[in-house]
Amino acid sequence: MQSFEIDKTDVLKLKQALEGDEEELVKLLGEYHASEIAILFSKIPLESQKRIINLLPAETASEVLSEMDFEAHPEELLLELDPERRQEIVEELDYDDATDIIAQLDEEDQQEILQDLDTEDASNIRNLLSYKEDSAGGLMNTQLIKIYANMSKKQAIDEIIQQSEEIEEFYTVYVVDESDTLKGIISLKNLIKAKASVKVADLINEDFIYVKAQVDQEEVADLISQYNLTSIPVVDDHLKLLGRVTFDDVIDVLEEENTEDMLKISGVSEDEELSGNWQAAVKSRLPWLVINLVTAFLASSVIRYFEPTITHILILPAYMTIIAGMGGNAATQALAVTVRRITLSDLSDNQAYRTVIKEFTVGLVNGAIIGLIVFMAALFYDSNPLLGLVIFIAMAGNLMIAGLAGSSIPLVLKRVGIDPAIASSIIITTFTDVFGFLLLLGLASKLLL
Amino acid sequence: MQSFEIDKTDVLKLKQALEGDEEELVKLLGEYHASEIAILFSKIPLESQKRIINLLPAETASEVLSEMDFEAHPEELLLELDPERRQEIVEELDYDDATDIIAQLDEEDQQEILQDLDTEDASNIRNLLSYKEDSAGGLMNTQLIKIYANMSKKQAIDEIIQQSEEIEEFYTVYVVDESDTLKGIISLKNLIKAKASVKVADLINEDFIYVKAQVDQEEVADLISQYNLTSIPVVDDHLKLLGRVTFDDVIDVLEEENTEDMLKISGVSEDEELSGNWQAAVKSRLPWLVINLVTAFLASSVIRYFEPTITHILILPAYMTIIAGMGGNAATQALAVTVRRITLSDLSDNQAYRTVIKEFTVGLVNGAIIGLIVFMAALFYDSNPLLGLVIFIAMAGNLMIAGLAGSSIPLVLKRVGIDPAIASSIIITTFTDVFGFLLLLGLASKLLL
């Protein structure tokens, strides 16, 4: 199949087919990969989703559900289905995908779905539901291939072939002992290459990476990314093998964490759904705006304090907005670079120190250049060199503070264990507003009155 | 091996070992995975890196180089090495990794390295160097496993085992014809499970995803992520198999694209190196600040225009900063949510329309609530209900514009084919500054004079 993206034409075709007869619709659906149907589902109402899911083979239907974006609410679709159909589809789902979907429902609905499943499936999913959603345990799949170290090559291959009936994809074979303690990993390639007389024990790689179930998903993602792993085994405190997290889960985690960072740094709650309704957005953003309002009153009180100065130099407000605006933007620049750097790698004390010095210097240099331009504008518009000088100093000083605050605040937050992205532009710009006004108005009242 | 992260202790231990004798150093290095040494390299000077690389086995040394962050400049280290050692290491590198590193050097240094390699390696790397760095061709590795459709199961497995000597990891086997045209893919699992009498042709999966070499890396990443692929074949216009991109390259691409987005939205050039020096940062950020300065003058000229109004109502500047500040932050919120949503999935016209309506509503509601708080503050501080009313209207209006601009500008940019993240907070806050001042000062001059 040629690679392509779902576009408007696909959505239109599907909507037309939904109006037409069943046969046409089934034919059209046959042209799409499950993950493409999942994308189309984000563009059509729940009723149509339900109709399509009921037309698809159970295996495809389960893939569609597992590929649906969380914001498209696969759990609502699942709940809508007739109990028998639902059971059929859940049984086709990997345990981790089933758990992720069911976890979105409230307790009562969860029980309703679980009671229809066979005992083994239900207990596996109940077990996964007990892990925190953003931990290795919450991310892992319990379906994997495991063999014993004392098996011969032939026994191992037969066992792998048999176990792989139930598992669509596997990348690594895990070697365990009788109590399921993880002993090592082995690659299918090496097993096949080995002579017939070889035992599993001879091929084991004991130098492998694993995580405990309670580890945060961000760390799991870092490990998979750092060591280029297709999957990572998840164990309990006694090294008992519980499951595995695969690279595709991690790609989703990375996108999720990146979304959270971008929202936080912009003063939006990290759990705001991008496609949520306006009520949810108000609830997510209003608290940050109120915090900002408090800090804005702080900046405003600086202006109130200098009201007599403004009375005498009425041109000052026109420059105040320039200095505050430039300071805010320079601070946002320093903040974005520093936060992103902290996210991608831990900084040593020395690197952190050099980062702050660098941002301080950048702020000072940019501030001096921008300040010079504004100095000349002040000469041109207001023919007042002393006013120009005051503005120059205020601009350079404010951008210097912008660099200092934009880099040191996230670094300090990281040191004390707070997510540095919380040092959003909202917090940082307070510093530049207050300091910019203080500097401009303070200097003006000394030098220009 | 237990999973762990490189921390200060590791860096200290390494630095101590670098002072001590060689034997100690080699022993310490043996405790680390290549990707961990790569992280340590970002904390030590080039001279120490060179010494360590020369102590490591060539295979490990090549892994360290390929795992080094681009900002740690592996190409400089490579250039520092003695030609013989360098040749040895480059030969151990995968072609795509070697190309990525060499591509960072200037033409002359590239030639110096390539001329020492054997003809096949050099021509493979030269070929890869000809693709754009951020295309599928620039990302792909030419080392892969390929077999013919007319092979028997036994022939195929023998061929795979032989080819896999040169390839550390493979996830999918590609089936080609005599002219290397890609016919389909086959999984090792299915091949092993098949009966001995089966031919490769019987097992081929012809319904697979591929990309052309010129496709942008972001699209390659989307496909791998959407279809949960471990690797994707790269072909030319005649479907000739050129190479494959693996999931681990894509994880790096995603991190890179996310960094670029976060920088752009904050008004920093997307190619600023996070750990670059201050001169580079000034060069990257000053142009954006100058753009911002122009827009700030625009806002400033609104204030100049209303100078007579300010003369009569001297408290206005104290409120101007609150209204402009709140507008800027509300716009940044709307912008972050919208840009992130566009990045993660294409929006239909209808979805785009509803997004703008939603952000408009959020702005209006948040603006009314915040406006009410400021109205009460105006009553309390300045005992002026009419002033309070003007401020209320200006705040609600400005946050409404913030929602409108923050959502519609990136959506329009996307429609006309410009990266929506370029609608950075710098551009957006101009709208809120200018409109906020116009509304506040215009209303004040009508109602309060």
TrEMBL record, chains A, B:
PROSITE patterns given in the database record: CBS
One Pfam family linked to the record: MgtE
Residues annotated as domain CBS: 140-203, 204-260
PANTHER family (UniProt xref): MAGNESIUM TRANSPORTER MGTE
Name by which UniProt lists this protein: Magnesium transporter MgtE
Cell location: Cell membrane; Membrane
Family to which this protein belongs: Belongs to the SLC41A transporter family.
Coiled coil: none
Transmembrane spans: 286-306, 318-339, 360-381, 387-413, 425-444
UniProt keyword list: CBS domain, Cell membrane, Magnesium, Membrane, Metal-binding, Transmembrane, Transmembrane helix, Transport
GO molecular function, one term: magnesium ion transmembrane transporter activity
Gene3D superfamilies assigned: CBS-domain, MgtE N-terminal domain-like, SLC41 divalent cation transporters, integral membrane domain
Keyword Transcription regulation attributed: no
Self-association and partners: Homodimer.
Recorded topology in the membrane: Multi-pass membrane protein
Primary site of residence: membrane
GO cellular component terms listed in the entry, alphabetical order: plasma membrane
Naturally occurring in which organism (per UniProt): Pedobacter aquae
Function per UniProt: Acts as a magnesium transporter.
